[in-house]
Each structure stands twice: as structure tokens, then as C-alpha cells.
Write a structure and sequence with these properties.
heterodimer, A: alpha+beta, Transcriptional Co-activator pc4, Chain A, 5-stranded antiparallel beta sheet, 4-stranded antiparallel beta sheet, 40% helix, 26% strand, B: mainly alpha, 5 helices, flat
Chain lengths: 195, 111
């Protein structure tokens, strides 16, 4: 018998179906071996897949949400499985690419409200003690412009602070010489040399 | 930015407490936050919710913030404050889980 857990948030529902790992002495009401998952969004087509798709899709949504909040330019997330691009600050284009040949990618337009519902479902899944997810690594592409944007503040400070400190210390150091310099003595000396 | 005659620096434990209160309030107010965000997605159909929220937001800013500050003036400008408000609401809506405290703290440190 397979276990089934549902995580709901407003218009989105995430269903996880699978079995416990008995070899790891797990309880019978846990899920460690996920056989299927379904993401139901109101007014949108059903999204379902295998365990190897769930981890990359969750990562995509988490990375994209971070980019959306931290960067001013429209964020883009691209991978072999899923692309997410912003139409504007409120609408996001999601392209889900099938791993099967000759299957057209599924294109969805999601608003911010649905995006936050999906992320909250993923949060519930991550925090659930009854489901364990083993994530798989799929290479992702984040544009260079965004990568710079993530470290923008650090790079700015690294670039400007050292010369700024150098100029300040030079001014402070050279200002101390004003005490050793007397213009009247110099004039007198010159008069003595050239009377 | 606040309208205050005393410049008190916030202590780390007070900062943590404020984050925890904010996360708990976001959990409680999520349906309202969601509706406000949704109203902006389709502004032609649901302009009432967004306009009410924006007007109240500006009222509160004028009441409690130092209006002479340039940053506060930017918050009050209706053509410029959309992005700030939407991003702030999104951050709150992303932080309603049990680990929301950590998420909100990370978001604030990155700003």
C-alpha cells in the first residue's frame, strides 16, 4: 500500500505518493521513496512527474523567487527541465519541458499570488517530518548579469573602499607636515642666499 | 526614516523579536496579502483592493515617517512605490512557513 500526503495553500495543492524505506527502519506512515507527485493549480493544467523532476522544479522556484526579490531587472531561470521568465513584476512565464521525445513543452502564466502559493506548498513539503526528499543535481543557467547582481553590493565595496581609505590616510598623513613647514623662515633663507 | 526625536539603535534581540512578530502576523494575514498581490495582477478588474491598500499605506507613512526624507518621499510617490510595495508583500507571503523566521532574516540581510 502506497502512502499519500497533500500540502495545500489557497489555490494550489501538492500531492506526494510513495512508500517508506523499510530497510532504513522507517514508520509505515512515512514516505522516502516517492513514486509520483502532482501539483494542482486552480484553472491550470495538472503538473505531475517522477521524483527526479521534483527536486529541480522546487529548486527552480526557490532560486527564481530569490532573483525576483533581489534584482531590479526581470529575472530569468533556465534549466534542462524548466524555464521561468518574468513578463513583468506581476506575471511569470513557466515553460515545463518534457523528458519524453516529441512532447511539446507546457507553458503556464502564473501571477505572484499563485507563485507564493506554490512556494508555500514546497515549504510545507520541506518541513514535513513524514516526507524525505533526496534531491538530484541538474545544471542550471543563471545569466551573468544576474550573477553580478547577486554580488553587486560586495563587489562595489571591494572596488571603492581600498582607494578611498588610501586617499584618506594620505591626506591625514600629509596634513601633519603643515606643523614642520614655516613659509617665513624659507623667505629669510632665500634672502640670505641671494641678498 | 521614522518620525522620531530620539535616535535609538535597535538591539539584535529586539530585531529578532520584530522579525518573529512580522512572520506570525504574515501567517495570520496571508489571505489578505494574497488578495492585494492578486489585485495588482489584474488591475483593470480589481483596482479597488489595490487602491484602498495603497491609499492606507500612504496615510500610515505620512503619519509615522519623516516625510522630509528622500527615501520616504520615494515611498509616497504612487508611480514609484509599486515595486517596493509588491516586493515587500511578496517577501511577507514567502515567509509564512515554520522556517519563515530564517527566510525573512536572510531576505532582510541581503537587502
Amino acid at each position: 500500500m502506497q502512502n499519500k500526503f497533500s500540502f495545500n495553500q489557497s489555490s494550489v495543492s501538492l500531492e506526494i505518493i510513495g512508500l517508506p524505506d523499510y530497510s532504513n527502519n522507517e514508520n509505515k506512515d512515512q514516505i522516502s521513496i516517492i513514486s509520483q507527485w502532482k501539483l494542482t493549480i486552480v484553472d491550470k493544467p495538472l503538473i505531475e512527474g517522477k521524483i527526479e523532476h521534483l527536486g529541480p522544479i522546487m529548486d527552480a522556484f526557490y532560486i527564481y523567487s530569490n532573483l525576483l526579490i533581489k534584482n531590479e531587472i526581470p529575472p530569468i531561470y533556465e534549466s534542462k527541465l524548466i524555464d521561468i521568465k518574468a513578463d513583468n513584476l506581476h506575471i511569470h512565464n513557466i515553460v515545463l519541458k518534457s523528458s519524453k521525445p516529441n512532447v511539446k513543452p507546457l507553458v503556464l502564466k502564473l501571477g505572484n499570488s499563485l507563485l507564493s502559493d506554490i512556494l508555500n506548498c514546497f515549504d510545507q513539503l520541506n518541513e514535513s517530518p513524514k516526507v524525505r526528499i533526496r534531491k538530484t543535481d541538474i545544471p542550471t543557467y543563471i545569466p551573468k548579469q544576474l550573477r553580478f547582481g547577486l554580488n553587486k553590493k560586495v563587489k562595489f565595496f571591494n572596488f571603492f573602499i581600498p582607494p578611498f581609505i588610501a586617499i584618506c590616510s594620505l591626506i591625514l598623513f600629509s596634513s601633519s607636515f603643515i606643523y614642520f613647514y614655516s613659509p617665513f623662515e624659507n623667505i629669510e633663507n632665500k634672502e640670505l642666499i641671494n641678498p | 526614516m521614522r518620525k522620531s526625536y530620539v535616535t535609538n539603535k535597535i538591539k539584535p534581540n529586539e530585531f529578532d523579536a520584530l522579525i518573529r512578530i512580522t512572520v506570525e502576523m504574515s501567517k495570520y494575514l496571508y489571505p489578505y496579502i494574497r488578495e492585494i498581490i492578486k489585485s495588482k495582477e489584474n488591475i483593470e478588474q480589481n483596482s479597488v483592493i489595490w487602491n484602498d491598500f495603497n491609499n492606507r499605506f500612504i496615510e500610515l507613512i505620512k503619519e509615522r515617517f519623516n516625510v522630509d526624507s528622500m527615501r520616504v518621499k520615494k515611498l509616497l510617490n504612487q508611480s514609484e512605490n509599486d515595486e517596493i510595495i509588491i516586493k515587500s508583500l511578496l517577501i511577507l507571503s514567502f515567509c509564512i512557513s515554520n522556517q519563515g523566521y530564517r527566510k525573512l532574516k536572510n531576505f532582510l540581510h541581503d537587502f
